[in-house]
Write a structure and sequence with these properties.
414 residues, Beta-lactamase, nine-stranded antiparallel beta sheet, 29% helix
Length: 414
Amino acid sequence: MGGGEARALVRTVTLAHVAVTRGFFPSLLAAVLGTAACAGETHEVKRLDGSRTGPAEIEARVSRLMSAARVPGLAIAILNGDDVVYLHAFGYRNVAAREPLTVNTAMAGASFTKVVFAHLVMQLVEERRIDLDRPVHEYLGKPIPQFAGYRDLAGDERWRRITARMLLSHTSGFPNWRRFTDDGKLRIFFEPGSRFAYSGEGIDLLQLVVEQITGRPAGDLIQERVFDRFSMRRTGMVWRPGSEGDFATGYDEAGKPLGHERRARADAAGSMNTTISDFARFLQAVVRAEGMAPATKELMLGPQVRIRSKQEFPTLADAPTSANDPIRLSYGLGWGLFWTPYGKAFFKEGHDDGWENHCVCFDEKRTCAVLMSNSLNADGIFKETLEILIGDHFTPWYWENYIPYQSRRRRSGP
């Protein structure tokens, strides 16, 4: 989401608030409190500061937040150590049909897909099939501008300097998506490797490289090396027919249903469908360094670039700030990073039309939280929810545009 889109979101929420409160989410608080049967494992949770909370407190406080912010569905997983100690689904997967969200409901992973792809790439790095610092064009057999979709780069020789490290750390110079640029063309906007600018285009180029090196579709490799390995049985890079019986509908800020896209082509930047249960298994694997050596995990979660931007989006805005220096906000290889009194944390967001996802892990404490929602309103409760769940007061919520819902309603313009 770009800055202009974010400002439009604020205006949309403000104008739609009256309509929403007049009945789109009938008795939402009762609905979210009434889905206990859809819960998974729920045990006492140990927060970062050593304090503890339990299912009753979590469910009461999160349900109130969801009702206040008009969030129809939210799924939560919490890890203590490397065990999933809390797994619960609140609210509806389909509001009109009154179908409850479950811990096995298929939801759009959006950019959660990128960290799954990064896990695959790091396996290939460990096997020495990819060198992070070798220019990626050397793997492709011909210049990048000769590939369909990359002809716009002809005449700018900086494509020769782009590496896998740059693509995974979002320092390639590409925009997030070319469709957001003034002319709709793909360009390199700054010297590759010089600064951070989140880019789905960069991940898609790396997908092309992986497929060229292995001779296989990236979706098939992810299925075998990640989903099958970690028993993520309800997860796929394309739509799984088995999901038809339990999938969520996405909703916009005003509660309008946006459906659930059934993708037929694997896109490493965002096509994954998953469940809160399955993604919690993946996060367990990352914490445990399963599927890769501990040294490879440390490389993946090591800082590659400091982030100086005021906010993550719009990606190409270059207005440096020191606001996040206290937490040393950085990017690793596929994951965002920051530092706290409890050590290093790694995180990833996932945004798409009708979907808001977030996960964060405090590595030394081995404490993690995953939030997955079928509502564009959900990121307005992420800050407070993380504080409730694990005592996370450190996530850079403003940088990620997780503006609390109360502030959004008070604002009348950009």
